[in-house]
Amino acid sequence: MLTLEWKNKFQAGRWLMLAMFALLHSVILLGLENSLAHPLLLAHMGLFLLWQPLWRGEREIGWGAFALIVLIAAVALFWLNWWTLTFWLIGLFGLVGARVFVFRDRAARFLYLTLMVYLLALLLLWVVPNLFDQQSTIIEVGQIMIRYALPLLLLVIAALPASNDEPVNSVQVVDFIYSLLLFLMLTLVVLGSLAFMTLAHLDYLEALLRTLFLMGLVLLIFGLLWSPRFGFGGLQVQFSRYLLNVGTPFESWLTRLAEAAQQESDASAYLNKAITLLTDLTWLSGMTWQSPDGNGKLGQLTKHTVMVEESALKFTLYAKQPLNPALLLHINLLVKLIAYSYQAKQREQTLRDMTRLQAVYETGARLTHDLKNMLQSLLSLTTIAQSPNERAQYLLKQQLPLITQRIEMTLNKLEQPEAEGETMQLALPIWWNALKLRNQQHEIEWRAPDALPSIDIPSALFDCVVDNLLDNVVRKRQSEPNIRIIVEVQIEPLCLSVIDSGTPVADRIASKLMQGVVVSEGGLGIGLYQAARWAEQLGYRMALVSNQEGRVCFELRR
After folding, report:
1. Which of 31, 187, 488, 505 could be joined to 510 by an S-S link, Cβ 3.0–4.6 Å?
2. Model-level pTM?
3. Can you list the alpha helix ranges (DSSP code H) found in 386-427?
């Protein structure tokens, strides 16, 4: 439906354009002195207003545009001469030629290229020779062209197939820069020919050929300078930097926007600073915005507005004057940059919140196991305390300070979950002796070098790992009473191993153990998973290094 609607619009626009050029050709064919030339030219200008790509047909024309239309109509009626017609044809050439760069479809481009050929031939072979009062063979050639060749060319244009691949919006699009360049280039051709005829006393054809040769040479030089291959940066870079200027230097504005993104970690604060930067643009009068962090209004509101919506951000910008297409492109680019950085700040905030929640969760899971292990140690101590001998009282005096330290560390973790990595360091011999005392009620074989070096270790991590492993092995011993339990320390490199001679861990469990939650008869494996994560954060690695019948070995290695 949309394609059919556009095709009808394009066909109507093309017939309107052909009727406009047919009227213009009739004016030139009849001659400027003919009484019908003025009304035909006025009708031609009326069709031009309907076809022109400068204003949309449904848009209301302001007083400035109306005054311009009246002025052109007055010139057409009262000051019609070859000079007026020359510059009018040059203007039409610029408008038609600029649309060649807009359309991507081959049929549409070929249509406008053919019209450019028609206008160029009409201008250089008939209008300009009459302007310069040339009575030579060029006038005879021009008469043949306007009587036979150019009307036939208009019929060929009318018979060209219609394009159906271009969007509706491109029907009313003109590139002002290309149009201006084509206008200036053709004006230089006409005036250059006049200069050669006046200064060098040449006839029109020779002056035209010299002008075209010089224009081609200049364009060739500019083409080489535009994208050179000899180390020079080229005019393309300079021209691009000029086009990216939107009231203040674009590069400087982007630098300030990037600095604001680096300085502000909060999304709302960054948005406020970015809006403040927008107010520095000289063409901007005011703005309103809507965002997840709230709405706002700044500056003065005018009738020249543009609305830009990007994701959750919605801006309405008010300009001091009507906005041209190039500025609209820059506005969209600026708002997109602000929106992308704003979304990045929102994602950063979400990640920070998730990190805090994850720290609380992981700390809570580890503390659950720490509390369980400490309760088991307290249960052992209460069992020892019930014994009346002096040996039991000696063990209580040695174990109670260690239990107190562990309780204090647990309370600190509860208060500051994010500072959990700053664990207390303890000398290896002291920690090893305390571990043996704490677990002396179990039948465990302790293996270590005769003289342990006094190196510092993260005692909380080692306690967490050993307590979880010994708890699992002790529960395993309830179903396999005769298994041996060995706890071994090696120095070079530092390694702590817990070994048992029981049945191996099932393969389906062993492959996922310490990588996530594992459902088994003995639990969910959360203790080992959290201990492995904690070890990785502190520069250690926890792994199941042996899983054979008679030797199941877990290892904590630096």
Report:
1. 505
2. 0.48
3. 390-415
